[in-house]
Amino acid sequence: MNEQLRGAPSPDLLPRFAAIVGERYAITDPAALAPFLVEGRGIYHGTTSMMLRPGSVAEVSAILKLANETRTALVPQGGNTGLVGGQIPFHGEIILSLTRLDKIREVDANSNAMTCEAGVVLQKAQEAAAAVDRLYPLSLGAEGSCTIAGNLSTNAGGTAALAYGIARDLMLGIEVVLADGRVMNLLSKLKKNNTGYDLRHLFVGAEGTLGVITAATVKMFPRPRAVETAFIGVPSPAAAVKLLNLAQARVGGTVTSFELIMREVIEFALRHGHGVRDPLAGPHPWYVLMEVSSQNSEGLRDSVEQMLADAIEQELVSDATIAASLDQAKAFWHLRHILPEVQKPEGGSIKHDVSVPVAAVPDFLAEATAAVQKLIPGSRPVPFGHLGDGNIHFNVSQPVGADQEAFLKRWGEVNAVVDKIVLKYDGSISAEHGIGVLKRNSLPKVKDPVALELMRGLKKMLDPNGILNPGKVL
Fold this sequence. Notes:
Elements: H1 14-21, E1 26-27, H2 30-33, E2 51-52, H3 57-70, E3 74-77, E4 94-97, E5 104-108, E6 113-117, H4 122-131, E7 134-135, H5 148-154, H6 161-164, E8 171-177, E9 183-186, E10 212-219, E11 221-222, E12 226-234, H7 237-250, E13 254-262, H8 263-272, E14 286-294, H9 300-313, E15 319-322, H10 326-337, H11 339-342, E16 349-350, E17 353-355, H12 361-375, E18 380-381, E19 384-386, E20 391-393, E21 396-397, H13 404-408, H14 411-424, H15 443-446, H16 449-462
Parallel strand pairs: 2-4, 3-4
Antiparallel strand pairs: 1-2, 5-6, 6-10, 7-11, 8-9, 8-10, 12-14, 12-15, 13-14, 13-19, 16-21, 17-20, 18-21, 19-20
Helix pairs in contact: 1-3, 7-9, 12-14
């Protein structure tokens, strides 16, 4: 943190900040603040004396101008669904909540573009696109509470990245308030705009350390006329990779999601999930949850059925079922989305959000599993994730009956073992969750030194007083 930077603001500053948004939107009551000081996993707990909830870009600008002048640190926060601690104030910083900036400014179906303010909940954006027969394809387990600016600030991935890309790929334009309060308006519906440096992407994945995103223009797509969802038992990750290639080559549509799930985490879901049923008649060591969509309303199911029949003949698939209704498809996705939650009753869980080239996933899983179990005998790796883009959540549950606190104290050891294998395969230690504080100390070990130097230079230039989310990422 900048030596001249305040952690907790001095009491005489609080009324000045409160005056910008009004007393109603300057939250100081400890009970009201409590939910915003802890993230979903319960790993990180913060402290603050105030949360500001601006209702306009002008108010955000005024807050940042005052914060910069007084060297008062701010932590931007959206839906508080981040998983690396990037949204938590650790040193008493003021929380800058963007949830009141919740307007969808424009939905332009003809241009396939939608402009949303920072606090628009992802599900609301999806529904707004659907209302004009379009699709906003970003889809996450937290879509009922995460926000558009939060998605961009962490460069969220999700289950449809295989076909549509990640948050960065879905962004056309952006509006950002800089550390000194200036507003940079790069909102645009254009796919082609070759006017010098493209500054938009500096703020995507920056986790609020370079500026505060207040609005974004995002891409929409034609809504599929047919969607088929299949739950598939496969003998191994290697078979799943071959199945992915077969599906992409043979199915008469677009493979939009291709999720790989280990049997043991399915067992967790059956034990601890609400309304969960075993997806197939018998157990299988691995599963694939595949979704395929098409602009043609006819023939997609026949195409998927034929592809699966061929895959069974090639011994890539042991059993499969295609959802017979929308409710069954929702049940399949419910099972997938609750996998992070159902690990909690099993005790401590050490998390990894990593990516490797798709072809390397089977070898990575085999090596990482063996290495972790050698390090901590009895530990239970329960990997799952987005095989289609090589993003695996390699989570490790504690041995049955082990001491949870002692297990979690070995988080760094386990990370080091897994990260070493990730790097062996030219992968990334953070695929879609960001760096925050969880991976901040690991970043210098894996980032190109020149790139890291440029990142620090950008931070110094855009936020010379270090007021924006200090201690995060760098």
